[in-house]
Amino acid sequence: xxxxxxxxxxxxxxxxxxxxxxxxxxxxxxxxxxxxxxxxxxxxxxxxxxxxxxxxxxxxxxxxxxxxxxxxxxxxxxxxxxxxxxxxxxxxxxxxxxxxxxxxxxxxxxxxxxxxxxxxxxxxxxxxxxxxxxxxxxxxxxxxxxxxxxxxxxxxxxxxxxxxxxxxxxxxxxxxxxxxxxxxxxxxxxxxxxxxxxxxxxxxxxxxxxxxxxxxxxxxxxxxxxxxxxxxxxxxxxxxxxxxxxxxxxxxxxxxxxxxxxxxxxxxxxxxxxxxxxx
Length: 279
Fold this sequence. Notes:
Blueprint: H1 5-25, H2 30-52, H3 58-83, H4 85-92, H5 95-102, H6 112-129, H7 134-161, H8 167-188, H9 202-230, H10 232-239, H11 242-252, H12 260-276
Helix pairs in contact: 1-3, 1-9, 1-10, 1-11, 2-3, 2-8, 2-9, 3-4, 3-7, 3-8, 4-7, 4-11, 4-12, 5-7, 6-12, 8-9, 9-10, 11-12
């Protein structure tokens, strides 16, 4: 019997956390914010990592962290800063369809459902981007780049789970690797001045830590556990509802104000993702 609870729980966590990240992204450098969220998550995951241990397959978790968290998430956060989570999330989640097309290079064929899903996603993205001002178009392009990077790094997680490593250990390998890379980047560019960048206070750091641990620690572990128990395809289908939850939650919480058109476009993209998986 399939247990959808871990994947759906991850979807809810991932839907709400981007909404709150924007508060930090408008006051500080995107790379620095991503570094801090990875640092807090790594500290929270260190003890489970020590307890559960690891084996040679951990290298795939580290590779996934480099691609999806260091590069992909930085692009995603940049998009959230520019256009908001309610717009960035639906676009970035098109990585689900991109993964399926990437399988073509491995000899798999393209299904009718994937073609239909592609058309629907193009329509949804067009509806989101058909907006006055270049800022939204730029943000959408950045979100698509994040999706592309996530696509490349996502398969590494599956390879790590095949090594029978505990999900928390894989999650730590991902966050620690990404944190190390971004920390080095920040150190090299420490003298660079960033416009509108302010010091994040202690209270803000505490709330950022809670959000980050929930997102990268708990959410990632649930996602990895779900992949290992019910498979990558079903897990992706279940977590694909996250962008729609983000749009609804951002409006209810009063953090953003996506228009009805934006919500319809996001719904089309989510529906397209589900259709493309053949569900």
